[in-house]
Amino acid sequence: MLFEDILGQNHIKNHLTQSVDNGRIPHAQLFVGNEGSGTLSMALAYAQYILCSNSGGENNIGNEACNLKFKNFSHPDLHFAFPVTTSDKVKSKPVSSFYLEEWRQLLNEQPYGNLFDWYKLLGVDNKQGQIGVDEAYQIVKSLALKSYEGGYKVMLIWMAEKMNTACANKLLKLIEEPPNKTVFLLIAEDEEQIINTIRSRCQILHFPPLAEDVIKNALVKQYNIDIGVATKIAHQSNGNYNKACDLVYQDSEDIQFETWFVFWIRSAFKAKGNKAAIHDLISWSEDIAKTGRETQKQFLNFCLDFFRQALLLNYNATDLVYLEPKTDKFKLENFAPFVHGNNIMDISNELQDAIYHIERNGNSKIILTDLSIKLTRLLHKKAE
User: Fold this and answer.
1) What is d(CA 20, CA 23) in angstroms, rounded to the nearest whole number?
2) Residue 38 and residue 56: Cα distance in Å, rounded?
3) Which of 59, 72, 101, 142 is most buried, by the most CB atoms less than 10 A from its CB?
4) Domain range holding 228?
5) How far apart are CA 135 and CA 99, in angstroms?
6) pLDDT tens across 77-123, in order?
7) What Å distances lie between residue 30 and 5, 48, 214, CA to CA?
């Protein structure tokens, strides 16, 4: 992975390469950034820079054989940990080493991919993965051995917030005092979900969302699309390159989410004073409850974004509005007046509570039905 292939984030590239050139490599770092900001790509390039003794700010000067191994991410001193779950391939005690073939496929095809893409690739998008205590034993075991090539060993933990408490506690001592020439690279989207004791032992690097110009230029270069279309997609992606790629392919799950959302909103408006409309809300809840929990969580996060965009439009912050609904006869400017300061906090809290309960294996049908009835009441709340 070359640094020049990573979009934007030049200040972070310079900081990382200079720290290696100066011989000041921290033993544990936490890369925090939203989906599509390039945290995983940066960690891979940084690991290559360390392991292959590269210099001059790029991964093409050091050990040639070593750089070659990184083309298919098979360097023996680069270890991976990521969220996994049981599947047709692994029936019990799943750990990352069982899924390395699929993992390398994701890195090659979608280095900016998210957790949902990963579960889809594994064919387990109806389950929730985690980094469990079995994984922690594997990490301790692999890092106890000397490095194959006599230099550094790098342990890259992707979506570190998915570590359960037992795993995090098991790794605590190792992260605090790793063996000589061992580097931990933790990657997370939400650092608040990582226990404090691990966060306090890491140097934290925050990745900002990508600039619209950076995404636009990358889309024109990679997909050879018209610059006007690229500009529009870059604006809609809101700094998320993974979402921009989905929009190019018209493959974004957001299209399905929008259909569900618009049906939900229309049913909620009909439901006031019309008892028959409650059946629409219940059948809507049943349809979504049939999907996987990850899909449900993604959808509710999409709803949060949609309400936020409507609020911004209602208060004339049009520069911050990037959402363009594709559903026929549904206009954001017509919906926006119903989302205001008097109901947005309640709507947001209800959606976050629903995500919380779904994450903890609550009955999706009951949670979503309850949410849709509450939303009906909140949408009819008058602005003060």
Assistant:
1) 5
2) 21
3) 59
4) 211-251
5) 12
6) 999 999 998 888 888 888 899 999 999 999 988 888 888 888 888 88
7) 21, 17, 24
